[in-house]
Amino acid sequence: MFLTTNSFHILPYTNYYYFITPFYLSCKKVPKSQTCFIFHLWSFNMVKNRAENFSSLFSLQNHNLFCVKFAASIFLVGLAFRIVFWDSFSFSSFVEIEKPSSSPPPPQTETKTESSVFSSPIEAPKFDEFQVNNKTQTSLNVAEKCDLFVGDWVSDLSYPMYTNESCHVIEPHQNCMKNGRPDLGYLYWRWTPKECELPKFNPKKFLNLMRNKAMSFIGDSISRNHVQSLLCILSQVEPAVEIYHDKEYRSKIWKFPSHNFTLSVIWTPFLIKAAIYEDMNGVSSSMVQLHLDTLDQLWTKQFNTFDYVVIGGGKWFLKSSIYHENNKVSGCHYCPGKNLTDLGFDYAYRKALQLVFNFFTSSSHNATVLFRTTTPDHFENGEWFSGGYCNRTIPFKEGEIDMIDVDSIMRGIEVDEFEKAITSLGSEKRVKLKLLDTTFLSLLRPDGHPGPYRQFQPFAKDKNAKVQNDCLHWCLPGPIDSWNDIVMEMLVNG
Questions:
Q1: What is the pTM of this model?
Q2: Closest CA relative to residue 272, chosen from 308, 296, 244
Q3: Domain ranges of the chain
Q4: Contact assessment for residue 333 and residue 345, using Cβ atoms and an 8 Å cutoff
Q5: Cβ atoms 187, 159 nearer than 8 A
C-alpha cells in the first residue's frame, strides 16, 4: 500500500502533517525503502484510529488498547527517524566515494601532426561555465585557509579559459599554438593547493573589484608575459583598449572603459637604475651599468597612482654587469679582463631588493603590493645561447626536480628580504605587502614554455633545423594563467 497526500487530511490532529512530512517525502523518493514501509505501517494505523469513534477511544474498556497503540506508534516513529538519518549518512558517503571517478582523465600530451592544431581549434569556455564552478569553489574556500603555493598540477579539461583566437594581445614569441606547437597537453593542467580549493579566476568579479582602480605589473619580460595572461582572461568580459606604449612596446597601458580600470606594465628588468645595451634579441653591445643605490624612477614616480602592484625580477642580475655605488664603480659580476672585484649577482640582487622594500615600507601610499618570486627556467643540455632546449610534454611531480643553485640563491634572497620588510612594517604604515611565491609551482612545469615555437613554424622548411629555444617565458594560454587564480584569491580573500 502506498500513501497519498489525501491520507494526511484524515489524521487526528493537524500538526501530524508537519510531523510526518519528512517521512512522506523520503517515501516519494524511495517507495520501497525500509523507511517507507514503516511509514506506511504507522500511517495506516493512524488512519484506522481516525475512523473509530472518539468517545469509545477514551472509554475504560479501550483505554489500555489506546496506550499500547500510542506506545507502538512512538516506537515506530523513533525507528523511522533512525533509518532516515542512517540512509542520509550512507547516501552522503556514497557520493563522496564516487566523486573521484568523475574527474577528467589525464590529457593527451601529444598529437602526431601539426595540422591538428588548426583543424581542431580549442574553444574557450563561455564565462558562465567557469562562473558557476567558481561559485562552488569559493564557498568551499571560505572556511579554509591554506598555503596557496604548496600543491600539484592536476588534470583539468575545462582549461584553457581562452585561446590565441579569442585573445589578440598575445605577443608572437608566446603564441605557441599559432607558431605550430604540435602537442596540446600542456593546456589542460590547473594548479591545485593541497589543503584547500583555489577558485578559478572570475573575470567579471575581478573587473568589478577593480572598478575605478589602477593596477600595474612592474619588472622584466616575465611581468609582461603575466599581464598578457590577465588581459586574455579579462577579455572574456571586456576587451582592453591600449592607450599607450613606449618606443619598443615594452611598457604599455590599457583601459577597460566600462569599469574605469587602468592596467599597465612597466618594463624595468632590474627595478633599479641601469644603462642597458641590449637589443630585442638579447644581443649585448656593452656590459650593463648598474647603480645599486638608486631605484629606477620610471616606476617609483608612478607608484602613488596605483592601487595594486605586482612586482618582480631577478633573472637580469645574472647578466654581465658593472656595479656603481656612491657615484663610483664598486665591483662587477662576470667581468673577465676587467680589473674589478667580482662581487657576484647575489650581492647586487640583495642590494636592489633592500632598496625596493625600503621604498614600500617607507611609503604612505595606500596600495597593495604583491612581490613575485623568481621564475626558474627549464633549459636542458645548454643555455638559450648554447643549444639548450625544453621538449617535455607533462608536468613534474613534487620531488622529481630540484631547483638549480642560482634559483635557490635568488629565491632565498627574496624571502629573506621580504621577511625583513614585513617585520619593519608598523601599524602606521599603509602599504599592504604580500608574497606571490610562484617559484615552486613554476618549477614543476617544464612543458609550458615555447621552446622552439617562439617563432612561427620553425620546422616548416627543415625538420632538423637548429633554432633558438625559449625555456623561460610561458606559452599563452599556459601555466602562467594559474598565477592569476592565485593573484585574485590573494586580493579578494587575503
A1: 0.72
A2: 296
A3: 5-101, 128-493
A4: yes
A5: yes
Q: What is the predicted pLDDT for the residue at 430?
A: 84
Using alpha carbons only, give the angle 55, 60, 61 rounded to the nearest 5 degrees. 95
Catalytic residue among 473, 481, 482, 485: 473
Question: Is residue 332 within 8 Å of 321, Cβ to Cβ?
Answer: yes
In the residue annotation, 330 being an active-site residue is answered as no
Query: What does 386-445 look like in DSSP terms, one character per residue?
Result: TT-B----SPPPTTS----HHHHHHHHHHHHHHHHHHHH--TT---EEEEE--HHHHHT-
User: Tens digits of per-residue pLDDT, 105-115?
Assistant: 444 433 333 32
173 in catalytic set: no
At which residue does the C-alpha cell 656593452 appear? 286
Of the candidates 109, 111, 249, the one whose C-alpha atom is nearest the C-alpha of residue 185 is 109
Q: Give me the half-sphere count of Cα atoms (radius 13 Å) on the Cβ side of residue 216.
A: 22
**Which residues are CB-neighbours of 154 under 8 A, at least 6 positions away?**
189, 190, 191, 192
Joined together, the cell numbers standing for residue 269 give: 628588468
Q: Using CA atoms, how far apart are residues 144 and 463, in angstroms rounded to an integer? A: 51
Q: Can 246 be counted among the known catalytic residues?
A: no
Which letter does DSSP use for residue 471 in this model? -
Residues in the chain: 494
Q: Answer yes or no: is pLDDT of 129 > 90.
A: no
**Assigned C-alpha cell, 155:** 588534470
What does CATH list as the number for 128-493?
Answer: 3.40.50.1110
